[in-house]
């Protein structure tokens, strides 16, 4: 029983954070938020040049074979710096999906190589959402049809962009036709792949939401130390203090829930679905409260386009309902607790059901 | 990260489980806020002690087993899971125990810890005074040093179970004219000493759960001082906040009622489901209790790696006290019109468990430092916001 990270994992997180603090600075983000495609390319190229796209590609395919546990630190950094969807979607969620495809799929190795080199943009269309992130940018689309996994070329689909409040997101409707030729996995195989992909996507979002919550809290603490009213920093007023303390509380309690879910997913724990949804519930809550209290602490400034808070806040609102909306994750946990016959004794927290 | 138990840990769990299955009284003991209940709980504690299960994480020479904190969490899961009696001496064992372990002399440890573990000595906390509640540094009870002893005068209040306890520990102003947290000494006072008067205070449930203690020229030998003269504040505060936060209320203490709440819901599903928010609240209670458990294992892991846990333990306290309120409020919502029934009522079955818990949950955000004070601490020491 050891609920901690290795020194390497922690150092890795720190290094990523340092790198992103310059490459994904608020100024760079603003560019991405206000322009179309070009600035995303710059950021993604920088990121791939650092080898970050190779993180979870299996070592046999030239990657680093990083697992979900380490990714739960990485996604928090991605959230903290509001890094666009494509990195986590390709390097983490997409890489996991492609790795899980049967080896008979001709393009599998090629795709893994390309992700590794940062040369493949991909988009994942899961039935949990009517919209596909980054469909416009993608070199390949991985689409769900019933339980089947389809690999679809952008040439054979109709893409209709739908603008999000998080303007760094590129969401689109994708009209496409499944066929035997596009089908890469079906039946039970496909079902397991999609189940795991939903969990990984949801966990990726959970980590990002937690990072976003921390960023909003940090911005608010900074603002409350600098803004003065009644001759004092507003951060000295108890009503302000308590709002921020409550955000800190939500963030602290969400962390271990996120880490346990990552551990479960990495080890294919039979309760991964539930653990991931629990993580989402806690991280959603943390981000939602961080957004609400942060804008309050910023006063009218918080309602402006000018203050950086807006980007992190809007992204948290958007992600809250990505890879499963908040209601669906609550329902998964609720159904498990209320409607199954499990023994919920205190001793069962880590016990694998047989 | 490796979230499975070792063979030794599993064996320890089974040993505790078996012992509890054979020894936990079948009939729930009467509340320890009565004389009879208090004594029955003392006997139970002795039984635990004889099986070296009363303070598993204490060194063997003080009556413990030298277990680590993971084992302690395991013990707690089994203990609460088995519905074993509440720990009547916990304010001594869990709060004072850690302090003596850190600041006591070898003699003091040998003198106080084993009898605390066996509950031959029962302990009451005596911090609060009529004018020193949240503002504990406003303590005015005095301790005048006269050679080898102090003479104590003043009043303490809200001292839990002091009416039946053998000893009290608290802070006294030992330097005349000193202010705030300076000039205080941490003293252990036998409650049968001459000049001690104890007056019970009836709590919300009508029992004498806490008491006022009056000191009228009470003589206390200097050997009963923990730490140096005038260093009492430091001693009282230094025992890692983590221990105060986590040890006092282990996750299993909330997981068990959350589990019972799920059962209450399942048994009364038709009634409960008239309001869809009830099912959601039940699931949240269970999930929050589990999150607290995960957080405890995470914290213990970090402590074992040598990390210091400071003011974030204030977040712990806010979390569990609010969770406790939610658990018992949700039970009340399910029980509806019968939730209010006392144990003696004809229609009451399981109700008394929920009503007792509901009443005591109201105190959670108040004792052990109110939640407002905890939020101040988090804002100032974790987030770095200005004091004034
Ligand atoms: C069940 C129970 C058992 C207890 N057991 C013991 C015991 O064994 N030994 C012991 O010594 N004490 C004990 N106490 C006392 C407890 O520690 C105090 O009640 C607590 O510290 C609060 O002090 P107070 O009651 O004087 O409230 P006050 O300090 O008067 O506070 C009243 C209200 O004002 C708020 N407030 C006060 N100051 C501030 C501030 N600076 N900022 C924001 N809000 C503020 C408080 O949060 C609270 O809501 C017990 C209390 C209870 C309820």
Automatic annotation (TrEMBL), chain A:
Q: Which residues form the Acyl-CoA dehydrogenase/oxidase C-terminal domain?
A: 190-319
Alphabetized GO MF terms: acyl-CoA dehydrogenase activity; flavin adenine dinucleotide binding
Record-linked Pfam families? Acyl-CoA_dh_1, Acyl-CoA_dh_N
Q: Which InterPro entries match?
A: AcylCo_DH-like_C (IPR036250), AcylCo_DH/oxidase_C (IPR009075), AcylCoA_DH/ox_N (IPR013786), AcylCoA_DH/ox_N_sf (IPR037069), AcylCoA_DH/oxidase_NM_dom_sf (IPR009100)
Q: What is this protein called?
A: Acyl-CoA dehydrogenase domain protein
What stretch or stretches form a coiled coil here?
Answer: none
- Identify the keywords attached in UniProt to this record, alphabetized: FAD, Flavoprotein, Oxidoreductase
Cofactor(s) this protein cannot do without: FAD
Flavoprotein is among the record's keywords: yes
Residue ranges of every copy of the Acyl-CoA dehydrogenase/oxidase N-terminal domain listed in the record: 6-119
**Sequence similarity:** Belongs to the acyl-CoA dehydrogenase family.
Automatic annotation (TrEMBL), chain B:
Q: Where is the Acyl-CoA dehydrogenase/oxidase C-terminal domain?
A: 230-383
Q: Name the SUPFAM superfamilies on file.
A: Acyl-CoA dehydrogenase C-terminal domain-like (SSF47203), Acyl-CoA dehydrogenase NM domain-like (SSF56645)
Q: What keywords does the record list, in alphabetical order?
A: FAD, Flavoprotein, Oxidoreductase
Gene3D superfamilies named in the record? Acyl-CoA dehydrogenase/oxidase, N-terminal domain (1.10.540.10), Butyryl-CoA Dehydrogenase, subunit A, domain 2 (2.40.110.10), Butyryl-CoA Dehydrogenase, subunit A, domain 3 (1.20.140.10)
* One of the record's GO molecular function terms: oxidoreductase activity, acting on the CH-CH group of donors
What is the protein's name according to its record? Acyl-CoA dehydrogenase-like protein
Q: Which residues form the Acyl-CoA dehydrogenase/oxidase N-terminal domain?
A: 6-120
Pfam families named in the record:
Acyl-CoA_dh_1, Acyl-CoA_dh_M, Acyl-CoA_dh_N
Family, as annotated: Belongs to the acyl-CoA dehydrogenase family.
UniProt organism field? Aliiglaciecola lipolytica E3
The coenzyme or cofactor needed here is: FAD
> Which Gene Ontology cellular component terms are annotated?
plasma membrane
User: In what residue span(s) does the Acyl-CoA oxidase/dehydrogenase middle domain sit?
Assistant: 124-218
